[in-house]
Amino acid sequence: MIHEYRLARRVQFYETDAAGIVHFSWFFRYMEEAEHALWRSAGLSIHASGRDIGFPRVSTSFDFHRPLRFEQEFVVWLRIAAMTKKTIRYACTLTSGDLRIATGALTVACVKRQPDETLVAIEIPPEIAARFQVAPDVNA
Amino acid sequence: MIHEYRLARRVQFYETDAAGIVHFSWFFRYMEEAEHALWRSAGLSIHASGRDIGFPRVSTSFDFHRPLRFEQEFVVWLRIAAMTKKTIRYACTLTSGDLRIATGALTVACVKRQPDETLVAIEIPPEIAARFQVAPDVNA
Amino acid sequence: MIHEYRLARRVQFYETDAAGIVHFSWFFRYMEEAEHALWRSAGLSIHASGRDIGFPRVSTSFDFHRPLRFEQEFVVWLRIAAMTKKTIRYACTLTSGDLRIATGALTVACVKRQPDETLVAIEIPPEIAARFQVAPDVNA
Amino acid sequence: MIHEYRLARRVQFYETDAAGIVHFSWFFRYMEEAEHALWRSAGLSIHASGRDIGFPRVSTSFDFHRPLRFEQEFVVWLRIAAMTKKTIRYACTLTSGDLRIATGALTVACVKRQPDETLVAIEIPPEIAARFQVAPDVNA
């Protein structure tokens, strides 16, 4: 059972903006990259083709402590902070060497796509839920 | 003195993802588009060339209520929720027709770029602060 | 019958990079925005929900003459340069005031999605082809 | 002296669009990622802080042979196809396993930023030009 993932990453040029630093919208993509890598490390894909369930984002946030710059290396540390029957909440910390860069959170819900394209919340299928557990000391 | 802005927008194809809906990272860009339009409506640019101050993002969040799809029209309603000597906090509501799509928040701080490229928090220059005021009933 | 579209646009902050100018990948998105607006002006959506045909990109190019900067206003002028039974080729010119910014080209093909998700080239449906015509003097 | 780079990559979710495949604008970013990795493998950064020269894109193109999908693994093979005193031209091939995905080209020019922010073409500094050479059989 998986409860965390550490993704090593380097800033790409197209992620920077005219202020010379990574545009803040990218931190949410970095966090999602780590989420999908965590799922792969559990033997799963969060968006398997032909499956009618999905995991849309319910809420998310980031606090930014220091900027990231072009070609800077950093680590995205994602942990499962909470699980309910229908949702997963992640906690995320970005660091670069010893520097704390940013702190994020993300909650996703399991939904089933209806024939009319609307999304209805359902319980996370047991074969998925069984692969994950809450990380110890996630609020430490 | 300006306290709000309403930006009308349509979903572009490159903003959608393989789930058929707008990728959640785009909501932060929509909110920032409205912020910069609010500054322009106050006669200002948030990133004027040749100026050594900037307004990096300190924290931000979004709650997602309903998905947006390709070519859907929506409105980003941005209000100034609070101002301190060094920061501005915005509240944001996305709607599409009568539907509530998402609710966001964004706090930015005024900084001065040092010769070594580090950023130091400073007070918002009075000629900028004088153009803005907190929106009434922003928590209504 | 439609043969051209002019899209007025302003540079958004997240479209700039650390060199202080619009990242070149955005010019392809600007061109596509104009394409989809051209289709809407013909009463069509290029990606209608529930339809099993699509228009993937076959080839594209851009020549860059001058940079674009944050908040700069520009116009994307898209013209239909050629049509075959299965493809449409567009020519694109970006200008800002009197300045020539960039020149692009884009060819798209009509495809049908097979049950196994592969794409097979088909003829453009007549109700779509009838809405478009080649622009006069497109090579002028 | 460096003449090529092979970048291994996986499709991220935010790179896909509502057609279920990678949006075509991303191929240009993939090609640029490989370019910057090629420069790093030569001991260089294409955008070193404090330096007043840059390498803006002059022209670029892609032919798309097959789509890429979420989590698909692929390789970006970038080669130096030509060098002049002021420009570098790259040739690029994307493959996924045995499949040819796309073929691209990119020409960049060396420029010096003037005090008024305009860009003037200059010769590539010898300490940079000396690290690169044209790849053999690049048109094979």
3D architecture notes:
The structure is a homotetramer of 140-residue chains. Chain A is of the alpha+beta class and 140 residues long. In chain A, 15% of the residues lie in helices and 39% in strands. Chain A contains two helices and eight strands. Chain A has a five-stranded antiparallel beta sheet with strand order 1-4-5-6-3, covered by helices on one side. In chain A, strands 2-7-8 form a three-stranded antiparallel beta sheet, with no helix packed on it. Chain A is globular, with a radius of gyration of 16 Å. The mean pLDDT of chain A is 96. Chains in contact: A-B, A-C, A-D, B-C, B-D, C-D. Chains A and B meet through helix 1 and strand 3 of A and helix 1 and strand 3 of B.
Oligomeric state of the chains? homotetramer
Sequence of secondary-structure elements of chain A = EHEEEEEEEH
Q: Strand content of the residues of chain A, in percent?
A: 35-45%
- Largest Cβ-defined interface: A-B, 24 and 24 residues
Task: Write a brief structural summary.
Four copies of one chain form a homotetramer. Chain A has about 140 residues and is of the alpha+beta class.
Topology summary:
The structure is a homotetramer of 140-residue chains.
Chain A: E1 4-10, H1 25-41, E2 53-54, E3 57-64, E4 73-83, E5 87-96, E6 99-109, E7 111-113, E8 119-121, H2 126-129
Antiparallel strand pairs in A: 1-4, 2-7, 3-6, 4-5, 5-6, 7-8
